[in-house]
Amino acid sequence: MIRFLPPPVRGTISFLIYLANTMFWSVPLFTLALLKLLIPINGWRAFCSKMLIKISNSWIFCNALNLKLMNRIQFDITGIEALKLNEWYLVVCNHQSWVDILILQNIFYRRIPFLKFFLKQELLWVPILGLAWWALDFPFMKRYSGTFLKKNPHLKGKDIEITRKACEKFKTVPISIMNFVEGTRFRPEKHKRQRSPYKYLLKPKAGGIGFVLAAMGDQLNSIVNVTIVYPDGKKTFWDFLCDKIPRISVNVEKLAIDEQIIGDYSQDREFRVQFQRWINRIWEDKDRTIEAVMSKQ
Q1: Whether pLDDT at 145 is above 60
Q2: Of the candidates 281, 104, 292, the residue with the CA atom closest to the CA atom of residue 206
Q3: Which of 73, 170, 215, 292 is the most exposed place for a label (fewest CB within 10 A)?
Q4: Predicted structure pTM score
């Protein structure tokens, strides 16, 4: 019956439910994170890490209930049948909207291990969520411009160091390392400024996944290549809350990890060029996948 309310009213109710759910689960999350920090015993910290993920999965489950209650999205999902909960994955995806994260958490819930995102350092200051991401050991990346690094050469390679340290934490329990390879959400002005060769995508940035594969390539089981499409046009998070996204298409492809894509991305220029070509081919296929979905409209 709630779906017959005006969209702005439904959107407000939905937002308040998401907010209340986040605040409710943040209490045990922050409490356990603090206890993990204060008691430096490896076994205890490993136990806390597992419990923190259980708490986060409960948060995701309640978000999924909210989505089911408030939204009438028609999902077209392919390729998730071969995924397993007890394997290590590197998940790569195009980035269209803030809605992407909720959708990915929803469709991968209890299908693959808990998603951990590489985040921009600025997101650490997002109220509640920033602290939650910190508690869950999400790696925060600080990006420096070429000009800044010339003035501060001692910071060169800092991202690589952060990636390696983060990956060490990920080796104890199955995990899904999530990377939006474009580095930011798709925006027409960004697409134009980049002179992107792809119709629906920004240029892929290979460094992040290159470092992860170098650090964990021998432990990761597969790469999960995800293509998310909004056939009726990209919508805002408010549109999502107001149930104005009628359809979402998600194509999932499981890729083997070949030895040729594991190497020294930071120092080996030849490997870096080869690796960029590899991710470019994936992005070409992804662009064609999006084109095929959009052409059905």
Answers
A1: no
A2: 281
A3: 292
A4: 0.86
